[in-house]
Amino acid sequence: MQLQSAAIYRLSMDLISPFTTSFGTQDKRHVTIVTVTDSTGLVGYGECVSNEDPLYTEEFLDASIIAMKKYFIPIVLNADISHPNDVSDVLKSFKRNNMGKAGLEGAIWDLYAKQLGKPLHEVLGGKKSYVEVGVSLGLEDTDEAVVARVSEKVLEGYKRIKVKVKPGRDVALIRKIREVHPDVPLMADANSAYTLDDLDVLRQLDEFNLMMIEQPLGHDDMLDHAALQKEIRTPVCLDESIDSFKAAKDAIALDACKIINLKIARVGGITESLRIHELAEANGIPMWCGGMLEAGVGRMHNIAITTLSNFTLPGDTASSDRYWHKDIIVPPVVARDGVVTVSDEPGIGAEIDWATLREYLVEEIVIEKGTAPDMIFSE
After folding, report:
1. Mandelate racemase/muconate lactonizing enzyme C-terminal domain location, by residue (predicted)?
2. DSSP character for 333?
3. Distances (CA, A) of 305 to 116, 272, 289, 297, 301
4. 107 contacts 118 by C-beta, under 8 angstroms
5. CB 111 within 8 A of CB 295
6. Is 118 a catalytic residue?
7. Sign of torsion, CA 354 66 276 205?
């Protein structure tokens, strides 16, 4: 692929409105864009979606940037990369740091598609010309405010509404939503806020005909999720628990879930995502693509993978203006009546708006081919 250089752009972007989950509240997002340039000057775009704090996973933004700068980027630039699949093999000695790996690999997938002159979704094997999208709503100060936000998004045509829940903000909240919207496709996302001690509460959610409850228990509680699914009718969807092909394989073998929320970054990139997609499809486990408050680059990668056949449920990729005053790509992501049209332009199908990116810029790091990784151990 003739890789010549890479760059990391750390940005600070204010959210249009605060986003509250069981982890806490965010009013801004530190977005990290990764670019890779080949010998002809063609540029691929990726996004590292690590949070600033190690709350969602053990990985956090400063660590991701260090890993990319000191290890991943120098090693990949100096390797013989002929296909994006090679990246995971080259970096397999490095443990975890999946979001950093995915940010770099995503840029290389975009570049590869551009080198072929094809849209990324076509290169991945996607067949859809459009994808259905849902919206994820954080907790508000009152249940009534959440209901009002749900009503707003229903009118905008989103195909599925996801609301965050946590102990004390669950059954009553969902009941109030159902009183106003008895038939809207609705799901609850717990972000690991419960344990099996909360079984009575989780059983009560069965009465509301939810599409699923997402990650009700801890990220490493695979056996407990299997036990929970036997006790409730609501389908369990695993999110944080699915961080690799092996985790997906274990979850399916244990009957720990009926649905998988795949996040490209959490599993380490598109290459691993494709393996999980094939596994889930072979076992009749439907999937959807979750979001991490991405800026436009990450959203375009999510749209591309959602065109694959087993992504049968609406994902989290709402319009750019749902979250950002001004996104960093042109054109921005636009959902109309709950549908995003898939671009047929090469790569992810959008370009970075560099003037806007530089308005948000906090730090820029450039790494050239030939830069040695900062390794203590050598082979």
Report:
1. 143-235
2. P
3. 18, 12, 8, 13, 6
4. no
5. no
6. no
7. negative
7 contact partners, CB below 8 Å, separation of at least 6: 34, 35, 37, 364, 365, 366, 367
Question: Strands (DSSP E) along the chain, which ranges?
Answer: 3-21, 24-38, 43-48, 130-132, 135-137, 161-164, 186-189, 213-214, 236-238, 259-262, 287-289, 329-330, 339-341, 351-352, 361-368
Catalytic residue among 69, 153, 166, 263: 263
Which entry of 101, 159, 164, 166 is annotated as an active-site residue? 164
User: Residue 352: what pLDDT?
Assistant: 98
**So what's the pLDDT on residue 379?**
55
Concerning whether 164 is annotated as a catalytic residue, the answer is: yes
% of the chain exceeding 90 in pLDDT: 88
CATH top-level class of 122-352:
alpha beta
Residues in a beta bridge with 162: 136, 187
- pLDDT tens for residues 31-48? 999 999 999 999 999 999
Fold of 3-118+354-368: Enolase-like; domain 1 (3.30.390)
Residue 17 predicted with pLDDT over 90: no
Element (H, E) at 50: none
Q: Could you give the residue range(s) of every CATH 3.20.20.120 domain in the chain? A: 122-352
Band of residue 249 on the pLDDT scale cut at 50, 70, 90? very high
- Helix-then-strand count for the chain, H and E: 14, 15
pLDDT at 22: 65
Is the whole model's pTM more than 0.70, yes or no? yes
211: tokens are: 């599409």
- If one counts every other C-beta atom within 10 angstroms of the C-beta of residue 40, the result is 10
